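Lab channel / #folding
Pinned by the channel admin:
"Please post every new chain as: sequence first, then the structure tokens as a reply. Keep commentary short and put observations after the output so the thread stays searchable."

First post following the new format, from NK:
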Amino acid sequence: MIIRFLVRFWLCCSVYAGVGGLAGCTRAAPKRQYTIGFSQCTNGDAWRQAMLAGMQKELSFHPEVRFRMKDARYSSALQEQQIREFLKEGIDLLIVSANETEPVTPIVEEAYNRGIPVVILDRRTTSKLYTAYVGGNNVEVGQTAARYAAGLLGERGQVLEVLGAPGSSPATDRHRGFAQALAGYPGMQLVARVNSNWERPSVLARLPAVLRQHPEVDLIFAHNDRLALGAYQVCKQLKRERQVRIVGVDGLPGPHGGIQLVQDGIINSTLLYSPGGEEAIRTAMRILQHQSFEKENPLSTMVIDSTNVLTMKLQTEKLSSQQQDIQRQQRLLQQQRATYASQQTVLYVLAAALLGAAGLGVLVWRAFRANRRITRRLALQNEEIRAQRNQIQDFAEQARVETEAKLRFFTNFSHELRTPLTLILGPVEEMLTSGPNLPAAQRHDLGLVRRNAQRLLQLVNQLMDFRKIDVGKMPVRATEGNLVAFVREIMDVFERPARQQGIRLRFLPAEPALPLWFDANVLDKVFFNLLSNALKFTPEGGQITVSMQRVPAENAVRVSVEDTGRGISEQDRAHIFEWFYQGQQSVAKGSGMGLALALGLTRLHQGTLSFTSQPGRGSTFVVTLPLELPQELKSMEAVAPVNLGFSVEEDLLPALRPEPEAAVSGSEALVLVIEDNPEVNAFLVQKLRPHFQVSAAFDGARGLELAADSIPDLIICDVMLPELSGLEVVARLKSDWRTSHIPVVLLTARGASEQQVEGVQAGADLYLTKPFNPTFLLESIRTLLSNREKQREHFRRELSVSTATVAPQRVDQKFLADLTAIVEANLSRSELNVEDVARSLGISRVQLYRKVKAVLGTGVTDFIQGIRLTKARQLLLSDELTIAEVAYQLGFSSPSYFSTSFKARYQVSPSEFRALHTTA
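Reply from TO:
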């Protein structure tokens, strides 16, 4: 049965193929295919687009023609290049509408001499070497315009002519015909001419001045309708649109064509100048099909004015409608042809598919039997894989639970390390600070204890940061600041240890200020680790260079830390950023966490960290930060910087301890300590009792009772308390009117930024992380008590009726006044630095930097420099001192550095500033 069906189907297909072949024999032989190249001077105006539309309309009757158009965009050189491209592509006929007559003539002659038929359209060339010319008689256009103008003005009047582009044949011929015909009317005078580039803006720019010089003009003859419209706008601007009559050329249909301008009364008339697109294609096809044709094919012209404009508009609209009908019918015909071709193709495909299906049927039947055997075997394998997958999932879940438990233990253990560190570092700091008579051996041993305790604390902090990064609990809270000042302040910390080790420290920013959104608490750890690492491995006499520059191509900022150390070996480079990797050197100088932590924090900040190294010559670490951060990483509130007092090893960095200040209230002030750890509680009482009256509690509830009973001047409270937490204690103290005014200092081992925010939001006045510096705690307490005393004094003055209420001077204003006075008193000292100013104010360098940063938004160095440059402007207004004397008097190390700094701030050099203001 199958064989009989296939035989019948094959016979049917053969018969159909024979019938199709017979039908194909009756079809006309396919027409020869032609390629026509059209070099257009421009296709940027309505008249040229009408020319192209006419060509395409005529080409719709010749589907065998492949038509290509190149736009020279008013460039004769480009037009010559495009015609040469046509000649290389092998066209059958060339149509040229020249941009300029003379430059295009040689390439047209070359195409003609190669045997390629050339049709010149609209604009003639200077040679007679062409096959045919199609276009209007521009001389006749000019003559017709002159005769119409004479009749319109009664053969008496003043005429102005707006010419087309100089050098183009239409402009030359129209002017020649217009001038010749106008000479036959003695009463008509051509008083002025205005050149243009065939576009309306050129008329708007040039015609007003000419019209003002010739107010007697009665009529304007414009070489196209666009120029005529521009002339009308100029006349309207000069309020002469009713006195001056305007004649244009082209007579195009459409809403912006000359016919519509005549009907709207904008211009008086227009001369029909056919684009000639249809005639050019008809002539080209007669040439290609070897039919008879005329070499010269001039297009007639006529005047369109108010008498015949309506008729012309109706005719053009009718022609447009008929053309649309023709195009619609052609599209339908093409769709029908495509449908026929697709149906024929589908039939052939179906026939082949049926034959193939018959052959495949046998193969499918045989494959089906084989697949049944394979399916059974695969089912068994899938069952085994499913069981293994479930087992793997169980192992993965068990591993996840175990890992999470390890990480929790790891985190809790790291937290617990802070309490014994408090009890180690606190007494050691106290002994080193308050024990000047200690023997040298004991001071050395205590220094050794402090260094190793600080090293242990650094490891704990880095481990905590590693844990936060690992679980995604270290958020980025970026604020806008000056990255140059930020890095400079960090480098200031490394000046003393670098100097002690004989290492030169250089800072080379490409710009004096670089505003950027960044998280200071994240980036300071990155740069501290990189600088600390460079300082470890740079030998005496070496150099560390920190450079900074903006990279516009990457929309980023690049900070490089380069050292002249021993470099990184080849085997270490692949592992340098791995956690706890210490390299192949015999003696490790670190824990192997610094660079890994720096990499993790840089990536957290949307940046990258890379390095290059040459063994024996040094290494360069490059931090690349984006100029823009996502909106979710930006914070409108200033983020409190991390206390770095114990964040680095003391053998590399100087201890950052607040300077002691005078006690405010001595033993009269009462301080309440709430701490559940007996040793820490006893340590706090011991350190505070010489300075204040102290009471203690070991839980939150008892602490609240003592606070309500004794009303202390200040409360120190631990956060992690049994039953009632420190945050709840603070909330209750602030909500009770009896204790709401008491300053509260929170102590905790929880140092995360979000935890500090919780403490401040609860109402704490100070949030200190363990281990803390006892001296810093004492001075913080004194400061809080002093501020509270000032507030009480202010309230007493406000409530007193016998004393004039004078608001006390703002603390920030007094601070700035003192800071300015100190700087101005030491302006001549070129060695004046941040430490000197901080020492004069009685505060630490870090406190001074953060205070100035909070009040002024700038660094201390920039503030000193600003005062020096401001003072320099005052001194430069007088001729009593030379520029060099001004520089040295203000503490600049050299006149050249003074000049560079002055010009960077005010964009003029000191000499230019003095010359400008003394002259004024």
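NK: The chain has a mean pLDDT of 80.
TO: also worth noting, Residues 309-434 form the longest helix (126 residues).
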